[in-house]
């Protein structure tokens, strides 16, 4: 097959490309330039798409003896990831920019261009497994190494996209094995640290970065019952579950810390309360998509048992899911948790699993706590 290897500049993508070469594929490496001002992206171990990453990707391709190109996706990245991040926070939600980057850039814009150029598939260094059902349709599964499993961030992929994906690291036992393999192959990135955090916020100060892009208006910090406790500088800079930075000046009556429970953009209020009110019972998601064939119950509107995960490194929790129609006529994924989940915020992505298989995902529209709603109705 003719394979386009997405080269981030890290050890995983380098080994994935090497394995694709070993498998006999015709491989071409490409690195994505995601900013026209590289200085605005994180560097060193905290980056994933900087100039130094591009150089590391080029050196890996040189070592493997495959062609290397840099594709400029900076405009798409700004529109689909950075601007979306700002818009979501402005609406009082907490987005996951890495999920949006996978959905819109790495497995939409990149894959579309690859297919248009005649490539059969895009290979990446993600830790995940791709299998086929009895009818030959793709199924996305967790990696053999659950500790490094990245199927969560791939939950946004559709069946058509999975048909053009290749995950050569599907059988690795651990990240240590990947590094050892890279070193044995003479790849300079063998000991390069992993990337993390938001690449387009250089200093890690998300609040300060947002304040430069969103018009912040002072407003009230209130209890679920409506009691005013203090004032904030801008509701959009807060996130559900946040404890620090409230600056209320006085403790709760029981002396325990308060946490952000809800952001209310319409009234510009930040609702705070005890930690126990962060536990939610029901999750409702919009922008539903399926990673392969939906289970029959989903297509029929019937409930089905799943495990749901709301963070890349979070624990999957048992739940009952169903597909319902929202007020706007679009599909909603409704998940009733078997036990409450703590600190879930609208804007996060929930990915549902059946065993190791990724069924699909949705962007959280609401996370409901029966106790919190009872307290709020008392207002």
TrEMBL record:
Record-annotated tRNA-specific 2-thiouridylase MnmA-like C-terminal domain positions: 281-363
Residues reported to bind ATP: 6-13, 32, 125
Main subcellular localisation: cytoplasm
tRNA-specific 2-thiouridylase MnmA-like central domain boundaries: 209-273
Domain of life (superkingdom): Bacteria
Keyword tags: ATP-binding, Cytoplasm, Disulfide bond, Nucleotide-binding, RNA-binding, Transferase, tRNA processing, tRNA-binding
GO biological process terms, semicolon-separated: tRNA wobble position uridine thiolation
Annotated catalysed reactions: S-sulfanyl-L-cysteinyl-[protein] + uridine(34) in tRNA + AH2 + ATP = 2-thiouridine(34) in tRNA + L-cysteinyl-[protein] + A + AMP + diphosphate + H(+)
Gene3D superfamilies, alphabetized: Adenine nucleotide alpha hydrolases-like domains (2.30.30.280), HUPs (3.40.50.620), Translation factors (2.40.30.10)
Enzyme Commission numbers on file: 2.8.1.13
InterPro entries from the UniProt entry: MnmA-like, MnmA-like_C, MnmA-like_central, MnmA-like_central_sf, Rossmann-like_a/b/a_fold
Site (Interaction with tRNA) location in chain: 126, 348
Record region (Interaction with tRNA): 148-150
UniProt GO molecular function: ATP binding; tRNA binding; tRNA-uridine 2-sulfurtransferase activity
PANTHER family on file: MITOCHONDRIAL TRNA-SPECIFIC 2-THIOURIDYLASE 1 (PTHR11933:SF5), TRNA 5-METHYLAMINOMETHYL-2-THIOURIDYLATE -METHYLTRANSFERASE (PTHR11933)
HAMAP family: tRNA_thiouridyl_MnmA
NCBIfam families: PRK00143.1 (NF001138), trmU (TIGR00420)
Recorded family membership: Belongs to the MnmA/TRMU family.
Official protein name in the record: tRNA-specific 2-thiouridylase MnmA
Native organism: Falsarthrobacter nasiphocae
């Amino acid at each position: 097959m003719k394979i386009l290897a997405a080269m981030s500049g890290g050890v995983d993508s380098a080994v994935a490309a090497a394995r694709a070469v070993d498998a006999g594929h015709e491989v071409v490496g490409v690195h994505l330039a995601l900013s026209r001002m590289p200085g605005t992206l994180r560097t060193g171990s905290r980056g994933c798409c900087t100039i130094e990453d591009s150089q590391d990707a080029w050196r890996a391709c040189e070592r493997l003896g495959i062609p290397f190109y840099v594709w400029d996706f900076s405009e798409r990245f700004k529109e689909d990831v950075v601007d979306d991040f700002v818009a979501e926070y402005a609406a009082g939600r907490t987005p996951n920019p890495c999920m949006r980057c996978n959905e819109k850039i790495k497995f939409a814009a990149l894959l579309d261009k690859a297919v248009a150029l005649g490539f059969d598939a895009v290979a990446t260094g993600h830790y995940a497994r791709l299998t086929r059902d009895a009818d030959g349709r793709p199924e996305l599964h967790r990696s053999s190494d659950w500790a490094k499993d990245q199927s969560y961030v791939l939950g946004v992929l559709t069946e058509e996209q999975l048909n053009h994906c290749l995950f050569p690291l599907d059988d690795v036992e651990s990240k240590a094995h990947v590094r050892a393999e890279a070193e044995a192959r003479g790849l300079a990135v063998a000991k390069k640290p992993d990337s993390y955090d938001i690449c387009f916020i250089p200093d890690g100060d998300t609040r300060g970065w947002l304040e430069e892009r969103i018009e912040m208006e002072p407003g009230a910090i209130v209890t679920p019952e409506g009691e005013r406790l203090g004032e904030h500088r801008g509701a959009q800079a807060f996130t559900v579950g946040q404890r620090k930075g409230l600056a209320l000046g006085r403790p709760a009556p029981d002396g325990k810390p308060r946490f952000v429970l809800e952001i209310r953009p319409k009234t510009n209020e930040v609702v705070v309360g005890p930690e126990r009110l962060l536990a939610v019972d029901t999750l409702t998601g919009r922008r539903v998509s399926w990673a392969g064939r939906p289970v029959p119950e989903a297509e029929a509107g019937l409930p089905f048992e799943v495990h749901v995960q709301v963070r890349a490194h979070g624990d999957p929790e048992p739940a009952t899911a169903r597909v319902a129609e929202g007020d706007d006529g679009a599909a909603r994924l409704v998940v009733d948790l078997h036990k409450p989940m703590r600190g879930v915020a609208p804007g996060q992505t929930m990915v549902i699993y059946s065993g190791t298989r990724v069924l699909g995902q949705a962007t959280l529209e609401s996370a409901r706590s029966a106790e919190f709603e009872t307290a709020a109705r008392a207002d």
